[in-house]
Amino acid sequence: MSGYLLPENTDYWDIAIRIHELSEIGSREFESSKLLINVLRTHGFTIKDRFMDIPTAFKAEKQIGNGRPSIAFLAEYDALPGIGHACGHNLIASSAVFSAIKASEKITNGTISVIGTPDEEGSGEWAGSKILMADRGAFRNIDLVLGSHPGDRWSVGDQSLAVQDFEVTFRGKAAHEAASPNEGRSALDAAVLTYNAVNMMRQHVRRDANFVMHGIIKDGGTASNVTPEKSVITYGIRTSDLVYHDELVERFKKIVKGCAIATETNYSIKKIGPLFSTTKINRTLSNIIRKNLIEEGIDCLTLEETFSELPKGSTDFANVSQVVPALEVGFQIAPEGTPWHSRQSLEAAKTKRAKESLFTIITVLSQTAKEFTEDRKFREDVARDFNST
Ligand SMILES: [Zn+2]
Q: Which of 10, 65, 241, 340: CA 20 to 30 A from 259?
């Protein structure tokens, strides 16, 4: 148990600021998760810490009336290594916790939970914890998942790219580079050849699939007069088409194999971390949340406007959207075009504007949860959308 003594009226902004200060990186968010747990316990939620055996994960639950339907809010609270809360996850944490508290006070029937999901940024052992949770059935008895993410605009249907990281190790043969280069087989050559072959492949991929492939050479040898006997490269392969992703991975593996043959080296290839999925958009949910935002005076992008933009990144929230109706609402805390994971976004995550937007998102998410518990048609439409896409 934590030694935190929370002041009587600890509010959503105190929590957002405190987590911004704590600035704990992924898989090591011990104090941040304790803080959130304590707030939820104070508000009558039952706590499961180390949820799914993940040290800094938790689940907090409160049953009201007959306990149906079940709605979960997802909290993130990991900072970025070196810079801090430049992705604004301090606001996501507060948004989830206080939306849940507010929803639990408004409804007459339902189960409201907050699931604390560590390491969205992928810094440590529990990188992409939502993927693990989705795979292990954490969302099986949940009817709706709501989340939020700060950014440079309001949106209700952000796409994300599927991504899988790979590490390839080539092994060649060391030799004196002047006396007996004929004896050597360079693992670095295999790495460089792969790097170039991947660049050539870029011309021959589907343009509509938002293909992105980024790689580095992590290890290219130790001394210039020794044929490098080992090299290591890592690549991330991204696309907005989950089926096409498999094909791209196969082509990457062929490139690696071909480059190993050409350089007479051996290779091994392994996946790093889990596969991040694409997002399954639920139109009913998006439209209702957008309506609720507009009622609060927010100018929110339509789904079509959001779809016309290129997907920018990847998130483990997408994997949740594949197993349960879910939506992560984008809320604006900085001027449009502000770069993220930057000094500007670090500052933006604790400004007055962030505070106002956070208040709005808490109001709208709790209101949406209330409507979901009261409106059978809303529930049926959401389920139909989910099952038909
Ligand atoms: Zn983020």
A: 241
